[in-house]
Amino acid sequence: MKKVKEQMSCIAIIVGAGRGSRAGEGLPKQYRCVGGVPLVRMSLKAFLDHSAITSVCPIIHPDDADLFAEAATGLDVLPPVHGGATRQQSVLNGLHAIAHLKPETVLIHDAARPFVSETVISGVLDALDCHSGAIPALPVVDTLKRSHDNKVIEATVPRDSLWRAQTPQGFRFNDIMEAHEKSSDEDNHSDDASLIEVAGLDVVMVEGDERNIKVTTSDDFARAEAAIGQRETRTGMGFDVHRFCAGDQITLCGVEIPHDQALEGHSDADVAMHALVDALYGCVSAGDIGTHFPPDQAKWRGASSEIFLKHAVETVQKAGGRIINIDLTIICEYPKIGPHRQAMCNRLSEILGIDMKRISVKATTTEKLGFTGRGEGIATQAIANTSLPLGD
Predict the structure, then answer these.
(1) Over 50: is that where the pLDDT of 7 sits?
(2) Euclidean distance between CA atoms 249 and 246, whole angstroms
(3) In which region does residue 279 sit, left (phi positive, over 0), alpha (psi from -120 to 50) or beta (all else)?
(4) 128: pLDDT strictly greater than 60
(5) For the chain, what percentages of helix, strand and coil (3-state, to nearest 5) are there?
(6) 3-state secondary structure at position 198
(7) Cα separation values, 101 from 9, 50, 83, 84, 96, Å
(8) DSSP E strands: which ranges in the chain?
């Protein structure tokens, strides 16, 4: 870990303890890759590479120690600090962790803003020479409307004097520490600058950067990828078969369907998910479902196939990949798939982290031919398209 100077000038706290639920299931968004590099690594390096930053303190979720260690391999950062239940608590934990180093100033930055520039960091630091706090910001240029759940416009909000706040937000260390310690989670501050404002101290805005986006949704990942490099589309195919056995329901795409038989298998025998898992592994040349979850291992007996699919999604993400769309064809005489198609798409959307418009679940029969036509089992074929860094 980093050898810290006796006198610290500025420490950057990189906050990455959240779960990133709006990005869909899978890895927390800060550990997903853009251009083959985890977001958190890009954010850490931006501050490590700045000559005015003495050290960098990462804030992580307690469950993410292994993910962070892998993402930050070789980076000279301070030991990671566990975050709290809220962002505000996470920042306070970080401030307490670095207090003994006696920094004069501190920068607080979102791990999911990987494209922060040296110019933006320098602008915030320069402003701290004369102000208690400084944040990068951009003026609001779009017309703003106010509405509630029905989406009917209630009013047009004047955009004059409105700005979009970004990070890093910089402060004199003693000021931000005192402001955090006097506040509580019930105050519901949306950023650190608001705590300084409440304390009656001045916070100045410096010029932000349109490229300094916060990667939040799957669409943000697509924009981020387009911004940093070329990509290629890779296609994977999967096929699986399970025979019927005694039982009263089957599971397809994570949805339980009442039936006069069950599907036989070592796990929950979700034949549709199994085919999709193999298709995703195929996109990154990662073997097949048996490679990662051998059927001769007792621990997978009766296991939910969602475990396998989530692992396949994470495998694609670790390779810097993003799922573009998937197409499933379920082949059986019965049960009828149509009444359950929407529920299947909903569940796959949650696990894959992509919009339902990118998910196709179809069904067909074999006109009474073959083992599916004789009602002996169900087969599924799957195709997955992914976007990955060119040449990886």
Answers:
(1) no
(2) 9
(3) alpha
(4) yes
(5) 35, 25, 40
(6) helix
(7) 10, 19, 19, 21, 10
(8) 10-16, 33-34, 37-38, 55-60, 81-82, 105-110, 133-139, 144-146, 155-157, 163-165, 169-172, 203-207, 231-245, 249-252, 255-258, 262-263, 322-331, 359-364, 377-389
DSSP lists the bridge partners of residue 252 as: 255
- The residues spanned by each domain of the chain are 10-227, 231-389
In the beta sheet, which residues pair with residue 380? 240, 330
CA separation for the pair 191, 167 (Å, rounded): 9
On the question of a common fold for 10-227 and 231-389, the answer reads: no
DSSP 294-312: -TT-GGGTT--HHHHHHHH
Length of the chain counted residue by residue: 392
**What is the distance between the alpha carbons of residues 311 and 111, in angstroms, rounded to a whole number?**
23
* Closest among 241, 272, 239 to 255, alpha carbons compared: 272
Tokens 């999604």 found at: 313
Distances, alpha carbon 281 to alpha carbons 127, 286, 319, in Å: 49, 5, 11
Top pLDDT among 75 and 20 is at 75
Q: What are 315-325's pLDDT values in tens digits? A: 998 887 889 99
The dotted CATH code for 10-227 is: 3.90.550.10
CATH (residue range 231-389): 3.30.1330.50
Q: What are phi and psi of 203, to 5 degrees?
A: -125, 125
Q: How far apart are CA 276 and CA 267, in angstroms?
A: 15
pLDDT class of 186 with cuts at 50, 70, 90: low
- AA letter at 241: V
Q: Is residue 298 within 8 Å of residue 284, measured between CB atoms?
A: no
**What is the predicted pLDDT for the residue at 147?**
85
Please tell me whether the overall predicted TM-score, pTM, comes out greater than 0.90 for this model.
Answer: no
Cα separation of 321 and 354, whole Å? 13
Predicted confidence (pLDDT) per residue in 243-263, tens digit: 999 999 999 999 999 999 999
| Secondary structure string (H, E, C) spanning 329-359 | EEECCCCCCHHHHHHHHHHHHHHHCCCHHHE
Tokens representing residue 383 in the block: 């195709």
CA 4 to chain CA centroid, Å, is 31
